[in-house]
Design brief:
about 150 residues, alpha+beta, globular, disordered N terminus
């Protein structure tokens, strides 16, 4: 009697959210829409007073290359006073909001949005970078961020 033994290679789990950011790095994540504020407020304290927050996150690039960069896409509603404080960053002009992963795109209001390099810089401290847009009428902040 002859017995054949075959080996099976398990399939590599694929992320449920994958997109391209600015044509440079793929975003990988579990596709879970989260509403807990604490992780976002820790990384971006400017959003710590959010009345509501929805976000997704994960890693960028390939998992076989070593250390990676993390990404987060956020849509947050802030009190009007906080929106006005952010708007005082200066240099605001009408912009398109940051492009978010598909699972977050439907959360972005119609706008119009304001933004500036100064506003981005306000959120880009201590190893965190961000592209930020504000819709003052809906008190919404749209952010896409990277950090290690």
């Amino acid at each position: 009697m002859t017995t054949a033994v075959t080996a099976c290679t398990p399939a590599t789990p694929q992320p449920t959210e994958t997109t391209v950011t600015n044509g440079t790095a793929e975003k990988h994540g579990d596709g879970v829409l989260r509403t807990d504020l604490a992780p976002i407020a820790k990384r971006y304290p400017q959003l710590s007073a959010a009345e509501s927050v929805e976000w997704m996150g994960g890693t960028t690039g390939s998992s076989d290359i070593g250390p990676t960069t993390y990404w987060v896409d956020v849509v947050a509603t802030l009190p009007e006073s906080e929106i006005e404080a952010l708007r005082s960053a200066g240099g605001l002009e009408q912009i398109d909001p940051p492009v978010l992963v598909p699972g977050m795109a439907s959360k972005v209001p119609a706008g119009p949005f304001e933004g500036s390099p100064e506003l981005d810089a306000l959120f880009s401290a201590a190893g965190y970078s961000a592209s930020v847009a504000i819709d003052a009428a809906t008190r919404t902040v749209v952010l896409t961020g990277l950090f290690e």
